[in-house]
Write a structure and sequence with these properties.
This protein is of the alpha/beta class. It folds into four domains: about 1-105 and about 185-265, P-loop containing nucleotide triphosphate hydrolases (Rossmann fold, 3-Layer(aba) Sandwich), CATH 3.40.50; about 110-185, no CATH class; about 280-360 and about 445-540, Rossmann fold (3-Layer(aba) Sandwich), CATH 3.40.50.300; about 370-445, no CATH class. The chain is built from 18 helices and 24 strands. It has a six-stranded mixed beta sheet, with helices on both faces. The protein has a six-stranded mixed beta sheet with strand order 18-21-22-15-23-24, sandwiched between helices. A four-stranded antiparallel beta sheet has the order 2-1-4-5. Helix 14 crosses helix 15 (about 430-445). The longest helix has 16 residues, at about 200-215.
């Protein structure tokens, strides 16, 4: 991976798609030539060309549903193309299964990791490829550990082979998946949305990993919809839109605005602009809130907060500092061990999730598959989750399925869920489209409060723009929003006030415009900048009082 202004590989030589370049001038690790893949009623890939030079990082950029993962599933042998050629290291290939692709040196790290939580790192890496000893009577664990340690040393991975997967962070789990592919001899690595579940610190660590891999001759293709990571990490970028390859560009010869327009087919507003908040009465408040985890350790410690009508309160912090447990207590997933929670002046500390939903609390969960959807259910069924016993979807204890279907189809249309099929199972959708459906369902509950955790995680730039606009529309309508996001640009640009959480407490609460990026980073690490030493975390409850001038109150 070259530094800015020094890329000399395929990205600089291939030019735009359709330029007539045969790719013979460069050493190609992958050449997908005219790939077409059809499913019933859908053309997922339409005559797509992709050329990737050996020893480079190549980004496959596009919106959710643009055909990126389908194309890589063709390269990995999960799908057989209807038309076109797959050429790997100069040889045309016809993969019948991922095993064939692995044997040809192609490995794929999926967006949702495929590891066994209760097994060790070493057991996961060698699973299905275990060397044996004593004539095949026993697994040669010493050899497995030795080979894994050698791989870790070669690529600079800090991974303990004896740790169980459930004990390690998400970022380390991703390294385990990469090690698993390398252990099987992969020279070409496909990473599907590799930063979707990583913290900012883990993302920087991933960039270091990619650089080390390419320095040692590996070829990386990563699927993404994020402009920043494509321009930062890639030597070349191929953009897909609606299943077609739009162009291939050098990241140093383009702009984020041009990439966004290629992706979406229109000009995209990359910066969010907000008007001053007009706040009303307190919708959500919490006092002296404390929550213990399963080990009995207090992970939320005496938090006070208040969110008013027409206000977005953002929470920023490195994952694992108590924000997940705080949100679970507020939404009714767990009961706090101390303190009180009020919703429009009513004590809801002991209320169930259903009671909170009925009162007007919408919730976009951190884990869309575990808590946002029932994966085997279709979108009609998922569209009514949480409201299946309430009007207008239920009357006299019976669900109005025609009404539910219409509601789900409206979500699909408004939030651009792909494929636009209400009968599709949730598990058949990409992660980004699952997220868009959940966001649509929760936003359309007519809520008084939206609790949004990572609302645009895994969502493309066009849909992110739409979700941000919808959040600001709800704010203007007087809806209160509690926003948790690891995307610092997102939480800073949308929030009226920003609370920084560290080790279960708010270390500071302020106007986000008053914080520099460096100061925010220090606060997230638990260090208070010198010029902020007098600020008080108690300010989280110091929202402006509403005025009598309007229903929502005056300017903040």
């Amino acid at each position: 991976m070259s530094g800015p202004g020094t890329r000399t590989g395929a990205a600089a030589e291939t030019g735009a798609a359709g330029s007539g370049d045969t790719g013979d001038a460069v050493d190609l690790a992958v050449h997908l030539d005219g790939i077409t893949k059809r499913f019933p009623g859908v053309v997922a890939n339409d005559d797509v060309d992709l050329r990737v030079e050996r020893g480079t990082v190549h980004a496959l950029l596009g919106e959710n549903g643009a055909g990126k993962t389908t194309l890589m599933n063709v390269l990995y042998g999960l799908y057989e193309p209807n038309e076109g050629r797959v050429v790997v290291n100069g040889d045309e290939r016809a993969f019948d299964s991922p095993r064939d692709a692995i044997d040809a040196g192609v490995g794929m790290i999926h967006q949702h990791f495929m590891l066994v939580d209760t097994m060790t790192v070493a057991e996961n890496i060698a699973l299905g490829n275990e060397p044996t000893k004593w004539g095949g009577l026993a697994v040669d664990r010493e050899r497995i550990n030795r080979e894994i340690r050698d791989l870790c040393d070669r690529y600079g991975f800090d991974v303990d082979p004896q740790a169980t997967v459930e004990e390690i962070s998400v970022g380390v789990q991703q390294r385990v998946e990469i090690l698993k592919a390398l252990y099987r001899g992969a020279d070409i690595l496909i990473l599907d949305e590799p930063t979707a579940v990583l913290t900012p610190q883990e993302v920087e660590g991933l960039y270091d990993v990619l650089e080390e891999l390419t320095n040692q001759g590996k070829t990386i293709i990563f699927i993404t919809h994020k402009l920043g990571e494509a321009t930062h990490a890639a030597d070349g970028i191929t953009i897909l839109r609606d299943g077609e390859s739009v162009s291939t560009v050098d990241p140093d010869r383009t702009t984020r605005e041009e990439l966004a327009e290629h992706m979406v087919g229109r000009e995209v507003l990359l910066e969010t602009e907000t008007d001053p908040a007009e706040t009303g009465t307190a919708i959500l408040s919490a006092s002296d809130l404390a929550v213990e985890d399963a080990r009995g350790v207090e992970v939320v410690s005496g938090i006070d907060l208040e969110v008013r009508a027409g206000e977005i309160l953002g929470i920023a912090g490195v994952d694992g500092n108590g924000q997940a447990e705080l949100i679970e207590a507020i939404t009714g997933i767990r009961t706090p061990d101390r303190g009180e929670i009020a919703f429009v002046d009513e004590d809801i500390t002991e209320w169930t999730r259903r009671e909170r939903i009925d009162a007007g609390m919408a919730y976009i969960p951190e884990d869309r598959q575990e808590r946002g959807l029932v994966m085997p259910f279709d979108l009609v069924e998922n569209g009514v989750l949480g409201s299946q016993r309430s009007p207008p979807f239920a009357r006299s204890g019976r669900i109005d399925w025609d009404g539910v279907r219409g509601h789900s189809e409206e979500i699909i249309d408004t939030y651009d869920v792909r494929p636009p099929d209400a009968d599709a199972d949730a598990e058949s959708l990409s992660g980004g489209n699952q997220q868009k459906f959940i966001v649509g369902r929760e936003f359309e509950r007519d809520p008084r409060l939206v609790v949004a955790t990572h609302p645009t995680r895994g969502v493309d730039i066009g849909s992110t723009e739409f979700i941000h606009e919808r959040l600001l529309e709800l704010r203007k309508e007087g809806v209160a929003t509690l926003l948790v996001s690891s995307n610092l640009d997102e939480v800073r640009s949308l929030s009226d006030r920003l609370a920084v959480i560290y080790e279960g407490s708010f270390i500071d609460v302020t106007d986000p415009d008053d914080l520099t990026e460096e100061e925010l980073g220090l606060l997230m690490a638990g260090e208070r900048p010198a010029d902020r030493s007098d600020s008080s975390p108690d300010a989280v409850t110091d929202a402006p009082e509403p005025t009598a001038d309007s229903e929502l109150g005056g300017e903040r």
